[in-house]
Amino acid sequence: MSITSPGGAPAGAPAVLSPAVSSRRFRGAIRGTGGARPLVPRGRTIVRGLTPWLFLAAALGLLLVFTYWPAINLVWFSLTDWDGIDRTKEFVGLENYFEVFTDPKIFSVFFVSLYYFLASFAQMAIALYFATILSFSTRFSNLFRGILFFPYLINGVAIGFVFLYLFQPGGTLDTALSWFGVSDPPHWLGDPSIVNWSLAGTSVWRYTGMNFVLFLGAIQSIPHDLYEAAELDGASKWQQFWAIIFPGIRRVIGLSFILAIAGSLSVFEIPFIMTGGANGSSTFVIQTLQTAFSFRQVGLASAMAVVLLLIVLVVTFVQRRLFPDEKVDLT
Q1: pLDDT of 81-91, one tens digit each?
Q2: Using CA atoms, how far apart are residues 241 and 131, in angstroms rounded to an integer?
Q3: pLDDT confidence of 301, banded at 50, 70, 90?
Q4: Are 80 and 91 in contact (CB under 8 A)?
């Protein structure tokens, strides 16, 4: 007598399951025992969720401690009459802000920034010109690139002292002009009508290299196939510039424009070292520094710093609205 299993098969023979039962067991094996989801330890799930924040913790901590917390304190100081020494700070509300916009001695220094803003256009034009030329095959191109970028690597204090000797009466510039018959050169740093142009020219010499590198990198990222197609069509270098190069680096030009505005409003090193703000060369940052540490009006100086920050943010917002980023349609 043979012994059979409950399914009708002989004992010891492999059980043959129906297709429905096999399918259910296969899906259950994929999902886990009994068709349930895989069991993951709760601690491992928590660690996975915290892993991105653990990598960001150090950077966020430094950002909060050294950027956002001082900014919050700056806003609080601007609402007080703190002199920077006393422990007590009397709340005065918006009085400091009213003084910033009503005192002509404070707000008029913003007009000095116009010299640097106009000079920044010459700076970008020079940088774009050399970046376009050196982006093509040019002899000694690496040497010229290094020469153009070198001034940006020099410390601002050193540049200030170098140009201080250049512009002084009887200095290097006056000696060079005497070779061309100029016997009575102007006082480059002593004449209020020309001092800001001299300082702005120094800034052009220093920061042209930064714009040059930005423009050169953007131009080199343009596909060479476009230049080859333009040459086959008989386009000149000037036509290639307006049809290929300029549209291709328009975003970088917009970025340089934002940096030019922010830089012209926050000029400090060059005029502070070369003139100390004398002869009408004081910028808004120099005025803020003198207000805080020379006149002991930290509350008013904090309000000036907040106003400068708001102006830069508003100008940046307007620029982004007028020149938005181009969206690439991938469909």
Answers
A1: 998 888 888 99
A2: 11
A3: very high
A4: yes
Q: Cβ–Cβ contacts within 10 Å for residue 179, how many? A: 7
The CB density around residue 159, as the number of other CB atoms within 10 Å, is 20
- Rounded distance, CA 132 to CA 245, Å? 8
* C-alpha span between 254 and 319 (Å, rounded): 8
Are the CB atoms for 211 and 148 separated by under 8 Å? no
pLDDT of residue 50: 78
Which residues, including other chains, have CB under 8 Å from residue 115's CB and lie 6 or more apart? 196, 197, 199, 200
Distance CA 74, CA 262 (A): 19
Using CA atoms, how far apart are residues 69 and 52, in angstroms rounded to an integer?
23
Per-residue pLDDT averaged across 33-37, rounded?
A: 49
Average pLDDT over residues 101-124: 88
**Beta carbons within 8 Å of 251's beta carbon, 6+ residues apart:** 218, 325, 326
Summarize pLDDT for 177-204 with one digit per residue, the tens.
889 888 888 889 988 989 999 999 999 9
Say which amino acid occupies 20. Answer: A
The dotted CATH code for 104-294 is 1.10.3720.10
Q: Is the pLDDT of residue 74 over 80?
A: yes
Q: Quickly tell me which residue has 């922010």 as its tokens.
A: 262
CB atoms near residue 298 (< 10 Å): 22
- Determine the Cα–Cα distance for residues 211 and 151; give it in Å rounded to an integer: 12
**Which pLDDT band holds residue 254 (cuts at 50, 70, 90)?**
confident
Predicted TM-score (pTM) of this structure: 0.75
- Cα–chain center distance at 199: 23
C-alpha–C-alpha distance, residues 276 and 174, integer Å = 22
Q: Among the residues of the chain, which ranges form H helices?
A: 19-31, 42-63, 69-78, 95-102, 104-107, 113-135, 141-153, 156-167, 172-178, 195-220, 224-232, 237-240, 246-248, 250-265, 269-274, 284-293, 298-322
C-beta separation of 300 from 95 below 8 A: no
Predicted local distance difference test score (pLDDT) of residue 69: 93
